[in-house]
Amino acid sequence: MSIRQLKVSGVRNLQPLEITPHAGVNFIYGDNGCGKTSILEAIALMASGKSFRTTKIQHVLNHEADRIEMFLEVDDEERGVCTMDSLRLKNGDTLLKLNGSVLTSQAEAAHWLPVQIIDPNTFKLLSGSPEERRQFIDWGVFHVEHKFMEQWKTFRKQLKQRNAVLKQKELEWLPTWTAGFIESAEVIDQHRQAYLKRFKPEFEKILSQLDESIDVQLAYYRGWDKDTPLVDVLEKQQERDLVIGYTQSGPHRAELRIKVGKLPAAEILSRGQQKTVVSALKIAQGALFQQESQRRTIYLVDDLASELDEKHRHALCKLLESLDCQVFITSIDKEKLTDVWQPSASKMFHVEQGVIVEE
Ligand SMILES: Nc1ncnc2c1ncn2[C@@H]1O[C@H](COP(=O)(O)OP(=O)(O)OP(=O)(O)O)[C@@H](O)[C@H]1O
Ligand SMILES: [Mg+2]
User: Fold this and answer.
1) What InterPro entries does the record tag this protein with (predicted)?
2) Any residues with CB less than 8 A from the CB of 339 and at least 6 apart, and which?
3) Does residue 34's CB lie within 6 angstroms of at least one atom of ligand 1?
4) CA 192 to centroid of ligand 2, rounded, Å
5) Model confidence over 311-324: pLDDT tens digits?
6) Is the CB of 37 under 6 A from ligand 1?
7) How far apart are CA 187 and CA 74, in angstroms?
8) With DSSP H G I counted as helix, E B as strand and the rest as coil, what are the percentages for the chain, rounded to 5?
9) In this predicted structure, what is the pLDDT of residue 40?
């Protein structure tokens, strides 16, 4: 998958832009505050409906604009050349289109625009809440298992219903919803387990290519005790669940534990090492996606130089190049991009006060 044409208006300080990116590497450089991150943010917004900088999409909207409009022409390995349009109004209303036909959900857009982001906040994947790591696993499952989104929605519905029943103390309904909850919980858990089994060796390989000296282990916690069937766990916890009005155990409590020895990696590793580990997680995810779907993910790498020394920058860039996918990579200095990396297939863009120009 690569973006062949990108049009954006109404995002942050960016002037309406229109660029034709390279299918390989796209270097974007410019001074602080010129709008580099905003360009990546716009692509991420199209892909996920979210910004990686803020939970409030209104903050992404240019102060003077009333809408964000985007148009992408993409070349997909499965679908060929297609167009994607999005319109986001100030009040939150959103319209997404693929080849001119309205998409009914953001998940559909996410399917057609697989994107991985490596940015200065990326270490939050280690130090942030378990939710971030659950979402990480689920990205991997979602992009290879076509049924996963529906199954995930079913699970959320079952969880919501069971919680409502617990809150209302409707004991006569509890066994029915508990049975439904268990059934859908097991489906989610099996997908995640199977994914992580395939993911782990890929991650270990990539991490050793980035830095052989970092030794971290991934351990999956499914959200309830690994040796006890969920039905028994729920039975044991039923009394407490009824008091708090909430299901304490299940896939909504799953966690990917990332450790150095017995300790959380986020509390042991330096910032640079954390960035390396997270980059390895994301590159491994992209690589696995590529192997399993025959499609390629797009990498958005914001502020490459932050936290990484020259050796690690070089290793990261080489790995990205070996994946042969489209990369958008930003830096303040042109030199910090090109000192370590001169890929054969690339374009250079300069941004100045919200205006992007191809060099
Ligand atoms: N909603 C908005 N409307 C207009 N301008 C905005 C809005 N939000 C942020 N800005 C401005 O837009 C610019 C966005 O900069 P951005 O973060 O993309 O810069 P950058 O090139 O990535 O800088 P840095 O090198 O510091 O990371 C900043 O100057 C910021 O003050
Ligand atoms: Mg920036």
Assistant:
1) DNA-binding_RecF (IPR001238), DNA-binding_RecF_CS (IPR018078), P-loop_NTPase (IPR027417), RecF/RecN/SMC_N (IPR003395), RecF_2 (IPR042174)
2) 310
3) yes
4) 33
5) 999 999 999 999 99
6) yes
7) 33
8) 45, 25, 30
9) 98
Residue among 8, 9, 11, 13 whose CB has most ligand 1 atoms within 8 A, to mutate: 13
Across the chain, mean pLDDT equals: 95
pLDDT for 116 beyond 90: yes
Supply 108's token pair: 């559909």
Which ligand 1 atom is at minimum distance from the Cα of 330? Answer: 22
How far apart CA 30 and CA 38 sit, in angstroms, is 12
Side-chain-facing half-sphere of 69: CA atoms under 13 Å? 9
**C-alpha to C-alpha distance for 167 and 190, rounded to whole angstroms:** 28
| Residue reference for tokens 């996920």 | 48
Instruction: Name the 3-class secondary structure at 289.
Output: helix
pLDDT tens digits, one per residue of 265-311: 999 999 999 999 999 999 999 999 999 999 999 999 999 888 999 99
Ligand nearest to the CA of 30: 1
16 φ/ψ angles, rounded to the nearest 5 degrees: -50, 125
> What is the 3-class SS of 65-104, one letter each residue?
CCEEEEEEEEEECCCEEEEEEEEEECCCCEEEEECCEECC
Q: Which residues are annotated as a binding site for ATP?
A: 30-37
Quick check: 195 and 137 in contact, CB under 8 A? yes
What confidence score (pLDDT) does residue 122 get? 87
Category of 153 on φ-ψ map: left (φ > 0), alpha (ψ -120 to 50) or beta: alpha
How far is 338 from 304, CA to CA, in rounded Å?
11
Residue 188: what residue type? I
Residues in the chain: 359
Chain segment 322-349, per-residue pLDDT in tens: 999 999 999 998 888 787 788 878 999 9
Domains and their CATH numbers in the chain = 1-114+295-359 (3.40.50.300), 127-293 (1.20.1050.90)
* CB-ligand 1 contact for 32 (6 Å cutoff): yes
For 88-229, where are the alpha helices, taking DSSP H only? 106-112, 124-127, 130-144, 148-168, 174-210
Assigned token pair, 354: 């919200």
- Burial level of 344, CB count in 10 A (0-12/13-18/19+)? exposed
Q: Is the CB of 38 under 6 A from ligand 1?
A: yes
